[in-house]
Amino acid sequence: MSKIKITTPKGALKWAQITGAGKKDLQGRDIFSVDIEMDQAVAQELVDQIDALWESDKPKGAKDPKSTGYRTNDDGTVKFSFKTAAKYPSGDPKEVAIYDAQAERVKLKDKIGNGSIGRVSGMASIYDAGVAARGVTLYLDSVQIIKLVKYAEAASFDVEEGDDVFTSDATFVAEDI
């Protein structure tokens, strides 16, 4: 199948899982993934490249792709979703290369939070898993972080008072719940 190397324009990084074991996909495999969002006008050239790849190399008899690796959000921005396996077929661990704003490779100690600004580089590749599953996947290779927003857990609960509230030192019997 055909593929092209791509690098996104600058955009807002979302749900970046590109270190450690990454996250589990729907089949339970470890994957690295990141979404990047930007205005339609900024995204259009890359959208056109991906669409041209599909049109020129789609599987014989294919019509519309199941997925193109991007989608237009309700607010008019475009989200590109990249992913890659966290291990090579040999079982050796994979690493997503991370670069700073000066295009210098770095090791990142912090998790990347939503709203970080950056670019993503990888491959757009056509997949064909039968008539109902044909499209374009965006494979993740590297991420450039231009502005880092560190991930912080966002628990912002108010304190609840009373005799029947759960606390860390409380013990409940199953019938109580």
Q: Can you describe what's shown?
A:
By secondary structure, this protein is mainly beta. The protein has a single domain, classed as Nucleic acid-binding proteins (OB fold (Dihydrolipoamide Acetyltransferase, E2P), Beta Barrel), CATH 2.40.50. Helices cover 10% and strands 37% of the residues. It contains one helix and ten strands, in the order E-E-E-E-H-E-E-E-E-E-E. It has one helix at 40-57, and strands at residues 3-7, 11-17, 23-24, 30-38, 70-72, 78-85, 97-99, 105-106, 116-128, 134-147. Strands 2-4-6-10-9 form a five-stranded mixed beta barrel. The longest helix has 18 residues, at 40-57. The protein is globular. The model has no long low-confidence stretch (mean pLDDT 87).
